Amino acid sequence: MKKAILISYDREDAVAEAVDLCGAAGYNPELIIRQKYLNRPKYGISGGAVESLEEDAKRIDPDVIVFDEMLRPSQNYNLASRLHRNVLDREALILEIFELRATGHESRLQVKLAQMRYEMSRAREKVRLAKMGEQPGFMGIGKFEVDVYYNDIKHRMTSVRSKLAKAGRQRELHRQARRRVGFGTISLAGYTSAGKTTLFNRLTGEAREEDVRPFTTLSTMTRRVGDGPGALLISDTVGFISKLPAYMIEAFKSTLEEMLHTDVILLVVDISDTPEDLEKKFRSCTRTLSELGVPPDKVITALNKSDLVDAAEIRKKTELLGLDGGGNWAVVSATTGQNLEGLMGLARGFISSRGGPGAA
Ligand SMILES: Nc1nc2c(ncn2[C@@H]2O[C@H](COP(=O)(O)OP(=O)(O)OP(=O)(O)O)[C@@H](O)[C@H]2O)c(=O)[nH]1
Ligand SMILES: [Mg+2]
């Protein structure tokens, strides 16, 4: 693993998530610097903090500095030139993970699009700085070249978008074929590492990769669960994470929008998370689902990893999430298989009470 110095917030949940992201990108944080604010204008952190960071960087000699927030190009440049290191902000880090993990044709295109959106969002500031004449040759790029660079990204984006549109049409055809077969359809959703793929494998007998690291799954796969008239089609896909910039969600939108066409969304939640994490991730997921236009009454919540917590704790946590009474949730364990039958029964009942597959 490569060495990193991680700059994050002074909060355990933020640090834990950032450390996981570093690990998924292949970086080991040798030092973690905790800061209350990461939005200072010049470096993101205070001048004093940068000073002591210079010493740390000399001592540790990290491959990168990871900054657990978004950085403007000028801030990134200031930090990088002061520390003589490559600086990855949170978005660049997530993009590195995406690049490592993208396997299928469509997810590779989606990652490319996200990378270009990232470049584009920074090209704007580069162009602005160059035009203001404040920093001609900013980051070694002159005004003319900036325009060329900008147009070049635009062109490449158009080409990737049209390839994505083609992949989308292909998916539409698959969807129509599935609808003709008349199976009820389920999409797995949820925070990264909640256990979607483990549940998928357990239900379908597949062997997709399961891993503690975030963003293990980037591409979508659909398989059948069960035989006969009660058979269902279930899809496993990319997970959510908090503070994902809008354009990253946009890049994966076509994948996520599949959910609008399925009968049931199975929101997988890791019930072994601390109450704070549990609540934060749950809210973040329901927000993302509602932004995608998924009606709340199409969602069943699967409280997963029940093997790791006792009944009393589960009760407390369901209350915390406001799930008591409703009946549109189930406690399961993808690892032990506990109550997976119950969960599928719930999904089938859900679909038939809404007029059968494809009705909603
Ligand atoms: N103890 C226990 N561990 C589980 C359970 N379900 C999943 N896990 C573990 O949780 C980790 C994450 O599981 P995945 O299935 O890869 O999670 P995911 O939601 O697909 O994550 P991404 O693809 O990264 O979005 C793995 O280490 C699994 O072994 C469960 O029911 N009990
Ligand atoms: Mg997965």
Report what the structure shows:
GTP binds at residues 190-197, 215-219, 236-239, 304-307, 333-335. GTPase that associates with the 50S ribosomal subunit and may have a role during protein synthesis or ribosome biogenesis. Its main location: cytoplasm. The chain has 360 residues and is of the alpha/beta class. It folds into 3 domains: 2-98, GTPase HflX, N-terminal domain (Rossmann fold, 3-Layer(aba) Sandwich); 102-160, no CATH class; 182-353, P-loop containing nucleotide triphosphate hydrolases (Rossmann fold), CATH 3.40.50.300. Helices cover 49% and strands 16% of the residues. The protein has helices spanning 12-24, 47-60, 73-83, 90-101, 105-131, 143-181, 196-204, 246-251, 253-257, 275-292, 311-320, 340-353; strands at 2-9, 27-35, 64-67, 86-89, 184-190, 221-225, 232-236, 264-270, 299-304, 329-331. The strands form 2 sheets. The protein has a 6-stranded mixed β-sheet with strand order 6-7-5-8-9-10, with helices on both faces. Strands 2-1-3-4 form a 4-stranded parallel β-sheet, sandwiched between helices. Helix 1 crosses helix 4 and helix 5 packs antiparallel against helix 6 (143-181). The protein is globular, with a radius of gyration of 23 Å. The mean pLDDT is 89. Bound molecules: guanosine-5'-triphosphate (GTP) and magnesium ion. The site of magnesium ion has 4 residues, from helix 7. Magnesium ion is lined by residues 196-197, 216-217.
